[in-house]
Amino acid sequence: MKKKLLSFLSIIVFTLAPVLGLTGCGSDAEDTDTLVVLNYGKYIEADVLKRFQEETGITVKYEEYEQVEDMYAKYKAGSINYDVICTSDYMIETLRQEGELIPIDYSSIPNYENIDPAIIDASEAFDPTHKYTVPYFYGTVGILYNTNMVDEQTVSSWDSLWDPAFKNQIVMINSQRDAFMVALEKLGYDINTTDKKELDEAYKLLCDEKKYVYAYLQDETYECMISEDAAMAVCYSGEAAMGMEYNEDLAYTVPKEGGNLWIDSWFIPRTCKHYDAAMKWIDFMCEEEAATENFEYVWYATPNTKVAAHEDAETLADETVFPTKETLSRCKLYEAYDNETLDYTTNLWKKLKAF
Amino acid sequence: MTNKMRTSFLAAPYALWVLICTILPLFYILGYAVTTSSGSFTLANLTAIADPVHLKSLWLSIKVAFMTTVICLVLAYPVALILHNLKITNKAFVVFLFILPMWMNFMLRILAWQIILSNNGILNSFLSFLGLPTIHILYTKSAVTLGMVYDFLPYMILPIYNALAKINDQVVEAAADLGANWFTTFTKITIPLSRDGIISGIIMVFVPALSSFVVSNLLGGGKVLLIGNVIEQEFTLARNWNLGSGLSIILMIFVLLSMSIMNRLDDSENGGMLV
Amino acid sequence: MTKIKKGTSYLYLGLIFLFLYAPILVLIVLSFNNSMSRTVWGGFTLKWYFNLTSNDNIMDALGTTIKITLSSSILATVLGTSAAIGIQYMKKRHAAIMLGATNIPLLNADIVTGISLMLLFTRFTPLGTFSVVLAHIAFSVPYVIFNVLPRLQSLSESCFEAAMDLGATPSYAFAKVVWPEIFPGVLSGFLMALTMSLDDFTITYFTKGAGVNTLSTMLYTQLRKGIQPELYALSTILFLFAFVLLFVTNYKGTTKEEAKTK
User: Fold this and answer.
1) Looking at the domain A139-260+334-354, which fold is it?
2) Complex ipTM, two decimals?
3) Which of A234, B149, B206, C255 suits a disulfide with A173, CB 3.0-4.6 Å?
């Protein structure tokens, strides 16, 4: 009797085995020819990724995330050892302060000389000694608007987002830091303020705005503007450029009070297991051809000086993609918040969304 | 008896599985819930539910889940009844027709609702074509409720349909023969006999609706903050895993409470699928 | 009178099906849209269907999805079916405990299940495809058990014992008496596990390793800058495949049943 039962069990085991074998080979094996990359979603031309693997023989495990906070959560979860990561300025500063960065060996990145020194200088805000980062793309935060519904004069100030005439026509950016930036600029405060009274004021202002807001969006902003569901939207410059490609009535501006300049850069986290391959990766990203392909896919401003030779005058003159000196002079980089301020604003943001 | 015992050992691998992949992870969550980020014991993450923000989102979740359940029930009962009366030979076909939409990715389907409901979307184009006033529905609570009704409707239809299928038709016929009209038969016979189906339908809709966060993310436009969104954001945006875990435990307790209330109404003895 | 009643019934059913299938129609239309934007109609095209096989990312994700979905649902079915049989023959009290535990994954919010499993897995195994398979088994086993168990309950216990009294070995009795009775339950449990696994996003998102992408997680990251239209095409194909499969099996099913009744 027992034997029969055993044979029945063994049948189950045998049916299990091939399936287990099938999945078993899918599990990770550490080897030297792989590279684990973490980047924003759709932030690279697929062909560039393919070419890198073909030319170097390195297998890339490519991971994407949506928001900068997601990246931090993913990294901090510690479940995956990332070799090279691309993220935004103030998050890099946070990680640097936490001692999570490894210096980059610039001598093994010959293409680093393609990078615009002005952007490298601007990176000092989060990488003061030029040891840890290589810029990838940069851009601004501003207002994308429909010229048939709003005139240029109105959106030249952040005040337009508090205009009752545009009730349910305004798309606000669904990002805590950027939303507070808008309110702080309107109030005339520093966008990096840690003064709780000023932050409280900004919070009250955002609460006032909520009744006019159609939606808080980040990813779908440009789709929403293309279909003319809304009259104006706070968004990133690349998002704006995408929208303008499909709808000729759209325009983008950084209001006169000023805004935010952001720089997304590559860095090596402490979890890096394939340092040499990571260097090759960064070098490849700075290469003329790869940078051009990426630029033509992403439409954010590239810090790569070699790209200009491949673009026509119209693209280069596009102020949405390449912010002018005048615009840049009004924009500031974010500084990393200390933990207390971060918790404080996170809480305000949650309250804003709940009420 | 010994035979029975031996056969019951077939559940042994599963018992081990439950221990490792169900019970153990719960202890991990509980561990996070009763500690601070530095590791010392606290109950603050559990009492945090009393924070007005959390109370408000919990209350909103209950309201939305309640509305979703009621609408699902009202829509689903006639469907189940009609299907039952259709005399279809192959039950499975009907069942699969309702789970078939799931073969189109969930996020894509909700995305399609965005396209249908937006200010210049399909619905409003249709309304203005008919000369009717357009409506502003996308990125409101109504849109979130609609999305949930859409997502969970099959879970209400199937159990009710199954319960109806179990009713002996002769009972209904007997009632009619004894002079009961359609309405009396329906309220006195059909509904009471399908009660089990209704109750498991209600649970299957209410529980996931209570903890859902993706629908409100996509159709709420960031303006509808449900308790599920709060928990999700504690884990991702705010990086406060301890608070996130604490609120999850509270949500679990809440779900268990509402379930035990529903189960008290359900006097069926077989320990079937509770949810 | 009855005609009117029948008419309204059909109308009502039609409206419900319209509600359930309207988004799917929208997505099918989008798969023929010659524009990268989902809100602009750029004319009719079949190019997304032709481009599909040459898009490595999507093909990779499709492969991973199929691998994960198939292996997790098969394993969940085997594990769940044997568990259901075991639970049926357990002492009442033990069975109640097991069923209570089985309800847990169904009660928990997806995000809690996902994160708690991630916390567990990172301790013991590197995250990869395998961890996703384990996680998918964890949330789909209950569906199998709750589909098989009612079948076992309606199966008279004495049938099995009678077969053995008549000299059948347990495995023979199982194959000839129990299995045919519970098979529909096993099948619907399997299909439910398959569907749940295919449709899951949250749990996969938290338990997957680097570079592992299923169609769901791929879609999620693509929401940021618009979805590759090839994905609409792929979804349409998948959906139509399921639809045709359902239609064919149903057709076969009815003819068999008709033959039986004759």
Assistant:
1) D-Maltodextrin-Binding Protein; domain 2 (3.40.190)
2) 0.87
3) A234
